[in-house]
Predict the 3D structure of the following.
Amino acid sequence: MAAAAYEQLKLHITPEKFYVEACDDGADDVLIIDRVSTEVTLAVKKDVPPSAVTRPIFGILGTIHLVAGNYLIVITKKTKVGEFFNHVIWKATDFDVLSYKKTMLHLTDIQLQDNKTFLAMLNHVLNVDGFYFSTTYDLTHTLQRLSNTSPEFQEMSLLERADQRFVWNGHLLRELSAQPEVHRFALPVLHGCILIDEKGGVRRIMPRDEIRVQIQRIDSEGHAANFVETEQIVHYNGSKASFVQTRGSIPVFWSQRPNLKYKPRPQISKVANHMDGFQRHFDSQVIIYGKQVIINLINQKGSEKPLEQTFATMVSSLGSGMMRYIAFDFHKECKNMRWDRLSILLDQVAEMQDELSYFLVDSAGQVVTNQEGVFRSNCMDCLDRTNVIQSLLARRSLQAQLQRLGVLHVGQKLEEQDEFEKIYKNAWADNANACAKQYAGTGALKTDFTRTGKRTHLGLIMDGWNSMIRYYKNNFSDGFRQDSIDLFLGNYSVDELESHSPLSVPRDWKFLALPIIMVVAFSMCIICLLMAGDTWTVMLAYVLFWGVASIGTFFIILYNGKDFVGALRLVQKGKID
């Protein structure tokens, strides 16, 4: 049994120190953080000065260094998600960011502004819904992994044994990680979606979050951007079953930089060693998950075609018996709302899914079956198309599991169980929305099909609305959002001694001048239309002049689109242009 993290905590604040008191039954530990030296030590309750200002907290998210110095981030509110094998799962819903420094008088005006911006970035990440934790259960590992661990592993603290791919506050906990004696104060937190229902559960974990403005969709270590592990779990009469899938960006060096166009053309690097990163990615995937059935859902024509061809070529060149590649042009196959044609893909992979199987352990704790590999699905952003396919694969696995457990008789279908169907479909749709909001800033597309099994005209309208919001965010907000994520995850470290602030990026004159000219010209065109002139000829001349000026300026802006979108300002470690 892993050493549980402390659940009940009190934060005592004095001008010199933070005291974090463990209030669990029988606990006497106090974590002391010196606000001047930043030293972390362990003491007992009697060492807390009575003059300290006291408040309850529910966990330490970690510490981070900004321009003004160090900051302590604590969880101040939480809500119960449910119970998972008698372990309580919580969602962190509010946080406080507390400065070690008592004053900001040591900062210049520029440093003050930079520090304010960095704090805004931190709060932006913390305000995105989806931070989950448990003080007694290891949420970072699948059921199958946990069943194959050693006694020594099970005695480790939650932080020490956690799969670091899924610990979103791993960078923030680096100081506490270095001191095993304080690990019970360190709380591994996931960012994703955990849904628990008495009839089953769906779990989704999102460790690497990058958005469209990033330099590449894979790094030199083979880590794919927007990689997500999804585990669907069933608990019935003491037996436990799970089915794991993964999704992730196409693991070659490519980018899709915003440029004001609705769908920026993907750019595949001509200088990077694609096979090196590709092989590193799948070597690690095979070690962790076993066999890989790759389902690529992107278009096989147009701007997406080169990516599909590159992916297929990489798989073929690697020549691994542990990998199968299936290209399914989702949009082509399902055009004109023919979503029933998704059965073509399901039939194509049915035998492979049976070979991969699922994990099942009986009520006596004996492993009945192991999952031998995973489906690794992707579309362009690994959101909407991917979630639809993953939900259908998970449903097929669940059908087999419930029959194996005796919940369904032979011949019974899940779709015949109306109450369960509603719960199940909504769980996957909610999972899709959570993933999309964290990545794209809006709800998912195509969730009408996930919720109801049918594609509807209302669903198309909602998809259009969400697509418009995504267009704005992708072009004008993603730079700040990606910078915020890189700061939070430690991909960028603040250095207050830098001679030039990375946040002070001068804008080209076009950035301000051209939009103003376009707005003025368009306004004048409307005014000329509304105000009658001396003659129709004069009015038409004015309208044509201002109309041409506004349209011409618009196309100049579009041509120079990269100068007008939200750009990255923080240099990320390990990025290749």
About this structure: The CA atoms of residues 191 and 378 lie 20 Å apart. The longest strand covers residues 69-84. The longest helix spans residues 536-559.
